[in-house]
TrEMBL record, chains A, B, C, D:
It is found in: Membrane. Keywords: Ion channel, Ion transport, Membrane, Potassium, Potassium channel, Potassium transport, Transmembrane, Transmembrane helix, Transport, Voltage-gated channel. It comes from Apibacter adventoris. It is a multi-pass membrane protein. PANTHER family: POTASSIUM VOLTAGE-GATED CHANNEL PROTEIN SHAB (PTHR11537:SF254), VOLTAGE-GATED POTASSIUM CHANNEL (PTHR11537). This is Ion transporter. One of its GO terms (molecular function) is voltage-gated potassium channel activity. InterPro entries: Ion_trans_dom (IPR005821), VG_K_chnl (IPR028325), Volt_channel_dom_sf (IPR027359).
């Protein structure tokens, strides 16, 4: 029973872990504290962790603000290093407590945990790289696990699965966007360059303008001035405006379909076929009665 | 019969009120005028109220316009105070006429009624706060009740329920937006700050830019100038453009589901057919009466 | 048979006309030419009309361009008056040929025909009003009738019906937008006015900014500069971005429902109930068999 | 068997080709290399082709960048001509290897292949035309055929078919957009021209502004300054914002319908149940075999 709960939890952590013969006592306890959030110690650890991640993100943001940096920059610098070193120690402890080290290191959180400490160390050499440590905000995704917001994760997963399933359509869509902006960008370059060489200074610059326009962002830092250019620009705008909800529509269609599949919990006992119609009585593959399982699904 | 109508009306007012033994005659009459709109006096009161709310909003708007304020500012000031004092008296009368005072005070309209008079009084101390009195526009929502536009309220409620039900998905979506803009903002700060320190002066400023870009607003007050910056900006634009109708899609999916659930409560006792028309009396499949279940669904 | 075709055609013209005893011969012939497009003369007339409408629109556009106006303004002026006088003669002829004059005058095209000649005459007094004659482009809608593009009109009608049916939802939505922009506009005025009095010079101006931002247009002519202002602006952007496809979603839901209703052509012979389920065998209202009509609908 | 595969392949190439008596041996072999990608030689040819298309696009883009053109413009010029001449030779070879020359020349790829070499030759006379050679990026669409990404093509085709089917609705929508922007543009010209003659200098210019605003692009290079102008602008923004996903909604509705039609061709002969799973063999309602009809649907 307890085992099942743990398994589900591990599912959200992103890698599987099972205490086997080889695990030492301290490893197991450490693991309980760092990776679990059932015990009191584990809860304390997790909440402290979330606090430090948030604090650390805030520090990096504040350090980048000139006015604040001039006044309390030194203290932020100290705090930042202190948090980074804490994170490093935590990473090492995580490595120690896990049996299958490679599994953790290559898991989603394993990678995030590592790349959220590297930039600060790199900042000794490349000063600016330090700000990239803000990627540690991704560690905050653990909040879903810690606060037992499993249903939130389900929502995210459902979206991710829909995204994966419709990746082909999205690829075709992006391909279309890139080719369109490339051709229209070159066309606008030829038309506008003579009269407006500052704005449409090169084809890549024109492509940038075409993307800004097609996506209806419209900064206005680059804008056509010739009549032909404005006519073409109008065309791009109307095109972009017309296809604006196509990609989301593709994904949401997939999302709806997934939900539907999820509803049909029936599975034929004879040929193991799934995805039956919601009101199906007979298996569409082998023709056997689905009734018994139908009854079961009604009870639950 | 009359009681039912009153109950429905109270539903729209936002709190329940029932004349009990303890209520005095004048209280009841005052309540009829202020809270009800059936009687002639009540109608006059409500329409006067709507007029003064609109007038008051207009006054505040005009007071903020320099040119107008110079010429007729004094008269607007007098009018504004006069309306505010009237609203205060009305609020006190409302308090008197209601039996369960706390119920009114903590209801939606009770809170709105209060905070729509406070800013004017506060303006004696904090001059600018006076303009916040524009929140009294929310009192205009009473128009739905007064003009007996119950169906409009139903529409609003249906939307609100859908919003509530999909709040988890919206939360995940906003979380995704914030994390994305934070990371991309920091990245752009590192890339652009050296060449474009005015626009990308800090990470919060870069985040602001990322939100402006991702939401396809694109003011153009902050825009990238480096090549790498423009490439990343293009990526953000295409991302924002691609997911633009995701949140609305989530809510509308919920909305459609709600509507559907609302329609389908009947189920034929003989052939178990579902998804009957909302006003169906007979099963569309086997022709049996649906009455008994129809009655049940009406009671609940 | 011919009568039916004429009736359908009259439906698209926007008013009914039937040759009765009182109509004179020349009236009938004139009507055939001006209002019909079956006969050769009628066709010639209609195509000439479309040509002159397009020409007239082009003239008005060209007149407004400084460079062109300087050179050939006089000839455009002559042409414009000539077209307007022709349209006036045409309008008088239409009035003569129609039996029920008031029906034509109050019909959609009757009004358009009139207001497309008024601005030019008014331009003798108010110079600028002349450009408003561009409203005659609406006369081009006749193209659907002339080119017998009935199905296009059906599409438009289907959209219009959906719009009308969802007008309540749209009203609530617009109400929400206006209240939101009003309150946020006032808030931004209080916050930004001190530091940025040029951009946020008054509450109406701030409301304008709020609409520009909420609709994701983002001109950038007005933009916040304070930190609190930018945070609130980000909120408005994300709000506007999130609800962007809500109104279209509401309309399209209505559109889909209309289409569905259109599919269920069954009608009970006993109680005249419509809108049966697509696979219904029995009337959901009175329980009678729908079979016979079901068979009919299958044949057709 | 092999014939079927070839036929499918030809489907993607865009024209049919069948080796008949008249074809010479070298023609057939050349065809195998140039048009097919099954053989080793064919694969090598295709990958080389994709590489040169990409290279050529990159060259044109780089040539347009001032800084790069100054330094290595000469070499890019040489490379560009070399690629263009190679493409010309390839085009001639394609002409030779195909039996039915006109079929190839008039096919989609035949046209693209030709117009992707013309601009470079034209650039001897019109210097700028050279950049239009970027249209050769469309030749990259062959990647779907070469990498055997048939399913990608299916997605594209499904989208194209939906577009074609909803072209009437799109036409009505565009007509509506153009008429709206024309009338509102003229109105804004009349209102704004007196005070803001730089921005709203003519009706076409005002129309450009109306399109920029309606599509929510909002460059900000043209913006209203009068109060009435701002009110109308707000109206256009809210209109544009409200109908933003209408065109995509129309197409996606068509897309969903197409998909559905594609799935549901089976119908049970015994209980007339429809909407079977795409791979269903037995009726989900009564359990009868669907085979016979399954076979039929495969043949057609």
């Amino acid at each position: 029973m307890k085992n099942i709960f743990r398994k589900i939890k591990y599912f959200f952590v992103g890698y599987t872990y099972e205490q086997k013969e080889g695990t030492k006592k301290w490893q197991f306890e450490l693991h309980e504290i760092i990776f679990e959030s059932d015990t009191f110690k584990g809860k304390i650890f997790d909440i402290t962790l979330l606090f430090f991640i948030s604090l650390s993100t805030l520090i990096i943001m504040l350090e980048s603000v000139q006015g604040i940096n001039h006044r309390i920059g030194f203290w932020l610098y100290i705090l930042d290093w202190w948090v980074t070193i804490s994170f490093t120690i935590e990473y090492v402890l995580r490595l120690c407590s896990v049996k299958k080290t490679t599994k953790y290191v290559t898991s989603f959180y394993g990678i995030i945990d590592l790349i959220s400490i590297i930039p600060t160390y790199l900042s000794v050499i490349f000063l600016q790289s330090h700000y990239l440590a803000i990627i540690r905000i991704l560690r905050l995704l653990r909040i879903f696990k810690i606060l037992k917001l499993g249903s939130y994760i389900n929502e995210s997963n459902a979206l991710l699965i829909s995204l994966k399933k419709s990746k082909r359509k999205i690829f075709v869509f992006l391909y279309f966007i890139i080719i369109t902006t490339l051709i229209l960008g070159a066309l606008m370059y030829v038309i506008e360059n003579k009269y407006n060489s500052e704005n449409f200074s090169s084809i890549p610059q024109s492509m940038y303008w075409a993307i800004v326009t097609l996506t209806t962002v419209g900064y206005g830092d680059v804008a056509p001035i010739t009549i032909v250019g404005k006519i073409i620009a109008s065309g791009i705008m109307i095109l972009g405006y017309s296809i604006i909800s196509v990609p989301a529509g593709l994904v949401s269609a997939e999302y709806t379909r997934n939900k539907k599949i999820h509803l049909n919990t029936q599975k034929c006992r004879f040929c193991m076929a799934e995805n039956h119609e919601p009101n199906a009585k007979y298996c569409f593959k082998c023709g056997h009665l689905l009734n018994e399982e139908f009854e079961e699904s009604k009870k639950s």
